[in-house]
Write a structure and sequence with these properties.
The chain is α/β, with parallel strands linked by helices. It has one domain. It is 40% helix and 15% strand. Helix 9 links the parallel strand 6 and strand 7. The mean pLDDT is 87.
Length: 217
């Protein structure tokens, strides 16, 4: 019954507030299939242990991620599913993670941001990635944000970004996870300062196999 109610509410929401493609204004999409093919795929990543799907500089994917991040438009993920799931499988294969138990850990946001938005967009990305893979488990609370620092998207200088998030994560409840690969998940990797600090916090606690995956770079 609960599922049916959710479907009904979703249907009503789409009727009242129909989706319109960011790129071409087509109805019933945030990104239509045609506009999706125009978004450049990310050919590189800041680190050998990280991977991203799209290039963030493209206005369509940038706007889509902002809708997900700040407006609770989770259906954005459905529109880009074909590329994200394919790239994620390639990522798992590259790092020998296919058919293995893998932990997905969303990058935590500051308490201030969580209170303002009411959710962490990276948790929804984790759920999206895990729904077709029974070997994947999501652990939302193995990382804790210890500092309410300035949002990274407000800082342009690479060095200042690194300083802003330095020692801002603490790993916890990971004693039973040693030996299990962990994939950090975020919406965007830019300079890599945030995921580097998150990875460092885990590795300092004895987790040796830590990777990172994001929608865009």
């Amino acid at each position: 019954m609960l599922i049916n109610i959710r479907k009904l509410l979703t249907h009503i929401s789409l009727l009242l507030f129909p989706r319109v493609c960011i790129g071409c204004k087509a109805i019933d999409f945030w990104i239509c299939p045609k506009c999706l093919t125009k978004i450049p795929l990310s050919g590189n990543s800041p680190f050998s242990w990280s991977s991203s799907v799209f290039m963030y500089h493209h206005p369509t994917i940038r706007r889509a991620i902002w809708l997900l991040k700040f407006s609770k438009k989770y259906s954005v993920l459905n529109d880009i599913e074909v590329y994200v799931q394919k790239h994620f499988q390639i990522f798992l294969q590259k790092h020998s993670l296919l058919n293995r138990k893998v932990i997905l850990a969303p990058i935590p946001i500051t308490k201030r941001s969580k209170a303002k938005r009411g959710y962490n967009q990276s948790t929804y990305i984790c759920k999206f990635l895990a729904r077709e893979n029974s070997n994947i488990e999501i652990r939302e609370h193995i990382l804790e944000k210890t500092l309410n620092h300035i949002s990274q998207n407000k800082i342009k200088h690479r060095g200042l970004r690194a300083k802003n998030v330095k020692d801002s994560f603490r790993a916890r409840n990971i004693e039973s996870l040693k030996g299990i690969p962990i994939v950090l998940v975020d919406d965007v990797i830019t300079t890599g300062a945030t995921i580097s600090e998150a990875r460092k916090a885990l590795m300092q606690k004895g987790i040796k196999n830590v990777h990172a995956f994001s929608l865009a770079h």
